[in-house]
Amino acid sequence: MDKGRSVYTLLYVFFAYTIMSILALIYLMPFVRSIFASFMTWAQASAYPPQWIPNPFTLENYLKLFRLSYFPRWVLNTVFVSALIVAANTVTASMAGYAFAILRFPRKELLFSALLTLLMVPPFITLIPNFILVTKLGLIDNLLGLALLGSASVSGIYLMRQYYLSFGKELFEAARIDGADPLKSFFYVALPLSKPALGALAIYQFLGSWNAFLGPLVFLRSVENFTLPVGLNFAFSRNMWTEYTPIIAGSLIASAPTIILYVLLNKYMIKGTVVSAKKG
Amino acid sequence: MSFFEESRRIEALVFILFTLYPLTLNFFFGYFSMMFAFTLSLFEWDILTPMRFVGLRNFYEMFLEIAKGFHELITSPTLVYLREPFFNGLKNILIYTAMVVPVQTLLALVLAVIGNQKIRGSHFFRVAYFLPATTCPVIVSLIFIWLFMKDGFINYFVSALTAGFKPDWLNDPNFLLPAIAIVAIWGTSAHFSVTFLAGLQALPREVYEAARIDGANAFNRFVHITMPLLKPLITYVVVLGTIGALQMFDLAWVMAGSGGGPGGAGYTIALDIYNTAFIQLRYGYAAAKAVLLFAIIFTLNYYVQKKLEFARVV
């Protein structure tokens, strides 16, 4: 490569890194700033111009959260609902996805497209009727009611169906010829192969249920039943803390699980998005 | 009964066993709820007293409010938010969508192109760009409220760049909606960049090789190859972004409050549906408003699914 070319490449690389770093800074700044501020007193965190080094360094913001009896409850509630939804969805989506992909049934395609059409329905049209239905079922202000509503997601079933279809029919036909009935071929052929898809499904369901706001806001009534997003917003709007730093600390605690999960598993998540974004 | 028929029957039984619960649940809380909502939109109901059939009066009232809103927008624009909240929500969400969708699409494309460079460390940058999308919008809004304060972090840079201009983002009606839009763009551009990244990585390499041999530079390759090939995906992101923007709820709820903040500048249709149903307890009227939102969003969604044949991103 001649010299002019390498200078050009060097410039290009330098330019690319500069833009990439500026963008990364913009996208990460709110998190970075919050982490620093969560160890500051409110007086310092609200100082102008902004200060960076916590002085005095204090854990008081985090302690304040856990002194409040509600906050640990909110964490537990969110963990409970998310765990239930993830568990329920891995079971229902793998079973239904397998059925829709492999098993023969009259009018199967019609049933499936009827199910998929529900993805086009905006949540606001079903919100009010579902509120009334859940009330009539006696499940309002109940974390189980919230988990019930999210226990069999259409997108999850779709994801698993796509995954099983990607193996091709031959595999399951071979199992059938070897004498495996549909149940056996599900438990001994399909399930052992579906770990990566189930992982992606679990991550997405976890992100969705951990971050959910509208559902919990409508279906939960009493403060001790709130999930983290609803609870923190409640604490903020009711001025439960006169200073803002505990809210920042609480926000960090609330977003920590999803961020850690993403940083650890982002490869699989991006793959999951790619799989589901492909032509269906 | 032959072996063949027997196995068919077992298959059908297992199919029913495996799909009964998800189908029942989704059809009940999906289709039944939808029909319930359509029916409800023809009634006046506060749950406590019996339902009262009013025919199309809810829809009449809604369109009357829109018509009156247009009139007031010309005569007394400062009172629109008090007198015609639904119209105000409609107006705001259209402005908001017009602000958010173009910027988020462009930024997402830029992020994806940058993240797709084969440079050492590009993996780190991809992780950084997508991080906002993993965090709950409510939590993000709570953090941004603090960053958007008059003497806050964002204004520190804004005033440095504009020589002392320091808007009071959340208390000034002119800046509340842009502030919400900025938070939304920050989150959704991150989200859609992954969609674009997936699209970029699926592009055929041979075309690029051929263009390189023909002497096309990076810019020309992008304009003449990447953009045309990405066009369906761009349409997909624009329509999906519009669908999301029209239903915006969490950000407005936290940053503006359920009433829409100062001057009702942060009021949206979604907030209005919530307030009409759960605060005013006019479930029928709220359902009528939801039907309008449904009609718009379902049409857009239908367009994406049928025209582009792209499956929805989970």
Automatic annotation (TrEMBL), chain B:
Coiled coil: none
Cross-referenced Pfam families: BPD_transp_1
Any Gene Ontology biological process: transmembrane transport
CDD domains in alphabetical order: TM_PBP2
Protein species of origin: Infirmifilum uzonense
Keywords: Cell membrane, Membrane, Sugar transport, Transmembrane, Transmembrane helix, Transport
The protein's name: Sugar transporter
Source species, domain of life: Archaea
Membrane topology: Multi-pass membrane protein
Residues covered by the ABC transmembrane type-1 domain: 90-304
Gene Ontology CC entries for this record: plasma membrane
Residue ranges crossing the lipid bilayer per the database entry: 12-43, 93-115, 127-149, 175-198, 233-256, 283-304
Protein location: Cell membrane
Family matches, as InterPro entries: ABC_transporter_permease, MetI-like, MetI-like_sf
